[in-house]
Amino acid sequence: MRLSRCLVVTGPERMEMREYPIPAIGPREMLLKVELVSICGSDPKKYQGTAMWAVEWGGMPFPFILGHEMVGHLDDVGEEAGTLHGVRPGDRVVVEPYIACGRCRYCGSGNYQLCTTRHTYGFSKSCAHPPHLWGGNAEYMFVAEGSKVHKIGADVPAESAALLSVIGNGIRWVKTRGELQFGETVAILGPGAQGLATTIAARQAGAERIVVFGLRRDRLKLALAREFGATHVFEVEEANPIEAVRAVTNGEMADLVVECTGSPSSIALAPELLRPLGRCVLVGSMGGGKTASMATDRWTLKELTVRGGLGQAWNCEDAARIVNARQFAIEKMITHTLALDRGEDGMRFFMEGRPECIRVALRP
User: Fold this and answer.
1) Using one digit for the tens of pLDDT, what is the confidence trace for 172-191?
2) What's the CATH number for 3-151+329-363?
3) What's phi and psi for 209, nearest 5 deg?
4) Cβ(228)–Cβ(203) below 8 Å
């Protein structure tokens, strides 16, 4: 019997290495040998047990295996899965985070990120019961029926490939939810990995002005935003965001704001940056059932549109093309890599929010 080493979250802020049997694969299933997995910005709240889903679910499904941003090679492929996805053992692929039931109204409309089963890799299922391997923080990951995979070229850095779904997020928030049109102005609040992915998506969508805001400690991230296509970057300690956008747009203000921080003050700022009839996409998670206040008169008087942005769905198809094209040095977003058995150290380091850290990855 083969075993997989896994980094398991056993309770709030507790991790340990465990071994689980590698399951037999059914005709519509696959097995991934993980090459690299990134710690997502949402993972700390899952590790702490305070993720926004925990409030709705009544708690996290301890024990569970984190990790939904991964790249690896297919170790085993069921016959029907191979035909459906056009893959075979040995192929290098990224597995999307969401597992679609294929039957509910949301899967039927292509919005499988809202599937009523709410199955995702990296936290929605406990590893206590077979097939155990429901997350990327492991040597092997079970790939269930309803998953979607994307082939990755051998020349693509693992650090870039692992962030494919993050790029998919940016595309969804800019194009699908934000409806950005060619030549428009987008303001991005927060230059973390999600904000940087949004910058790439805005550049690909043909935005004329891409304005990214961060803090003084975000200088590394803001520099990378410039490299990815931002036309203007600002530290909010040095520049008033409202005046900055007014100057950049000659008084017209932004067509679209993508709020990536989840900060109440940032959410309150969003309508002030928008022109009348502008759009705002809220993607930052506060976690733990926290709330933010809005000056609703501003939204009403300017007839603004505000939308939520959960994550990518079919947008990963475009993201795969971007990743495989290697037009952007996406791998620069992963600044630190540790061995899997040091994963809890990596999580705590990531949570410190050091200025030299954008993303931390684990290598099994």
Assistant:
1) 999 999 999 999 999 999 99
2) 3.90.180.10
3) -125, 130
4) yes
